[in-house]
Specification:
single chain; 52 residues; mainly beta; three-stranded parallel beta sheet; 46% strand
């Protein structure tokens, strides 16, 4: 049996820019992520955990 945390995407220490860079992202953990100019960086994303 697989633990849900095993399938979670982990993104750390990154930066994104432009229109909707992580559009529709699901089941993810974001740590120390920066978003530069652009719109709706996480539009339609679900089950996201974030911390700085």
């Amino acid at each position: 049996m697989s633990d849900a945390a095993d399938t979670m995407i982990r993104l750390r220490n990154r930066f994104y820019e432009g229109e909707r860079p992580l559009f529709g992202l699901t089941d993810a953990e974001l740590e120390d992520i920066r978003f530069y100019p652009g719109e709706s960086a996480l539009k339609h994303s679900v089950d996201i955990r974030a911390q700085c």
